[in-house]
Amino acid sequence: MKRYSAFAIAREALRHHAGWERAWKSPEPRRRYDVVIVGAGGHGLATAYYLGKNFGITDVAVIEKGWLGGGNTGRNTTIIRSNYLQDASAAIFEKARSLYETLSQDLNYNVMFSPRGVLMLAQTEHEVRGWKRTAHANALQGVETEYVDAQRVKELCPIMNIDGPRYPVLGALWQPRGGTARHDAVAWGYARACSAMGMDIIQKCEVTGIRAEGGKVRGVDTSKGPIDCGKLGLVVAGHSGVLADMAGFRLPIESVALQALVSEPIKPCMDVVVMANTVHGYMSQSDKGEMVIGGGADGYNNYTQRGSFHHIEETVRALIETFPIISRLKMLRQWGGIVDMTGDRSPIMSKTPLENCFVNCGWGTGGFKAIPGSGWGFAELMAKGQSPLCDAFSLDRFREGRFVDESVAAGVAH
Ligand SMILES: Cc1cc2nc3c(=O)[nH]c(=O)nc-3n(C[C@H](O)[C@H](O)[C@H](O)COP(=O)(O)OP(=O)(O)OC[C@H]3O[C@@H](n4cnc5c(N)ncnc54)[C@H](O)[C@@H]3O)c2cc1C
């Protein structure tokens, strides 16, 4: 595959852009692969990429029922941060964040990583204590964060109203190297790199069954016919329960719709990401100038990819309190994705009761930021049967009561 470069742009400009290759191939599935990954979202594609890059395993198919990146990976609000409370979470999210720093160069694809800084507001005394505690934990974990007071918040984000009306801003947890990246580009960059390694990305191909023999996985049935495999990775976010059912085991997962919306584009007015968890709303400004706004998750299980109407009103109300200047903005689009929630709000990256079948899910409302780290760890788990990044996130923890409790530190925030 030809490399993208400034020279290539100049060359193609002279050739009327006739020489660009397709970014990835769209092959028909073969009868067998060493590894099949179900789900061409960021996590599935990153897993395939690091299987090839770190372990030389390239006889891999990534199977996707829709189009690649069309699940939650292309539906999120793109926030990247690693300021989690528990050591195991900080380790994987910081691994991911640090990989994001050089991901564009690694993939030879501009993922537009923008480490503009993330502010998580403290609007109650309880949150002040919580964020200070997280800042201390992060210092021990080697994650760069700082608790800042309300005045510093105002300096970092002048359009913010720090005085109320319901909850004044008391301070914030500030992660200066957190930020955003272009979500589609992350999926496309990994897909292109996987395709260049000879892997097959098979879109519009739904997995409809999982075949097993003697307690071991044998392959999958798909809408394009059966495919055999040595190892199987299930990386399907909100549909994890459906796939686990096909494989004959149950997951402690609930699937709910989470929604987001964007405004019409306006001039640059905000160069940080702000999350206001007490009033519940979060916002950043895209490179096009749109205000990207994250809403709440539905309070009941569903697969609608739409989200309940009242969340829009609640989210917009919360943000107008925090940023009065947006009160007259028109909203352009609203959408939803199906997120996979565990009880402790931490992911599952694990072996399963079916031998050679692995599952990566439970990233809930906050897995975009984890994509490179998750792919790195899950590839190691699939290749070697063990990974230090994944150990704490095995399915056993639910039986043994070893929860990685991020339900206060990260469960609602993205
Ligand atoms: C509105 C919203 C805002 C969010 N904001 C943030 C944020 O700001 N920051 C953050 O870190 N995270 C955020 N998230 C969460 C994040 O998007 C997800 O955790 C992450 O994208 C999950 O990626 P994935 O690869 O596991 O899943 P997905 O991208 O959903 O990929 C799974 C794929 O599996 C495919 N699939 C399902 N069933 C089958 C089948 N039977 N056969 C074949 N393929 C199948 C689906 O079509 C899908 O493409 C947000 C999510 C939403 C919905």
TrEMBL record:
What are the EC numbers? 1.5.3.24
A GO CC annotation given for this chain: cytoplasm
What are the required cofactors? FMN; FAD
Q: Which GO terms describe its molecular function?
A: nucleotide binding; sarcosine oxidase activity
- Where the record annotates domain Rhodanese, the positions are 35-79
Q: Which Pfam families match?
A: DAO
GO terms for biological process? Answer: tetrahydrofolate metabolic process
Q: Which Gene3D superfamilies match?
A: D-Amino Acid Oxidase, subunit A, domain 2, FAD/NAD(P)-binding domain
Query: Where is this protein localized, as stated in its record?
Result: Cytoplasm
Major subcellular location class: cytoplasm
What family does this chain come from, according to its entry?
Answer: Belongs to the SoxB family.
Q: Which PANTHER family match?
A: FAD-DEPENDENT OXIDOREDUCTASE DOMAIN-CONTAINING PROTEIN 1, SARCOSINE DEHYDROGENASE-RELATED
What is the protein named? Answer: Sarcosine oxidase subunit beta
